[in-house]
Amino acid sequence: MPLIVTPMSDGRNWRLVEPFYYYIGKLGSDNIVTVPPGFITDFASTPQFLWLWLPYWGKYGKAAVVHDYLYQTQKRSRKEADQIFREAMVVGNTRAWKALVMFLAVRLFGWLSWKAKAWRLHGET
């Protein structure tokens, strides 16, 4: 399924023009993540000094959009969001070492973003 986005004026973020669907487990699964049009993503939130090896956009771009959406909405647990991210990277043909590094990075450091978003959504710490 194509991911259709348009750049935002800030030069870093992108807005979905059309909805994007990710079927967990296999295509046609009943377990689906639907990212709505209008959702704003920065793709992979990798620090700029790592962009030579892990740019914010790559074969894992669709996986990053799904992961951003799951973190921003917290409709799934953080662990499940990270596992879906890893699966989607593999499905998207991301090199195994990149998928592993990115998965480990979100498992180790993603709690910072998760907690910040939880506070904005629910007033939780």
Question: If you had to describe this structure to a student in words, what would you say it looks like?
Answer:
This protein has three helices and five strands, in the order βββββααα. 43% of the residues lie in helices and 13% in strands. A hairpin with an 8-residue loop joins strand 3 and strand 4. It is α+β, with helices and mostly antiparallel strands and 125 residues long.
Record field, number of beta strands: 5
Structural class: alpha+beta
How many helical stretches? 3
In spatial order, strands of the major sheet run: 1-2-5
How many independent structural domains? 1
Task: Please give the alpha-carbon distance between the first and last residues.
Answer: 36 Å
As a percent range, the share of helical residues equals 40-55%
Regions with little confidence, pLDDT below 50 for 5+ residues: none
Strand content: 5-15%
Oligomer: single chain
What kind of sheet is the major sheet?
3 strands, antiparallel
Principal-axes shape call: globular
Order of helices and strands: EEEEEHHH
Fill in the keyword field for this structure:
3-stranded antiparallel beta sheet, 125 residues, 3 helices, alpha+beta
Give a brief description.
The protein is of the alpha+beta class. The protein contains three helices and five strands; from the N terminus they run βββββααα.
Give the helix/strand layout.
Blueprint: E1 5-7, E2 14-16, E3 20-23, E4 32-35, E5 40-41, H1 61-73, H2 78-91, H3 96-122
Antiparallel strand pairs: 1-2, 2-5, 3-4
Helix pairs in contact: 1-2, 2-3
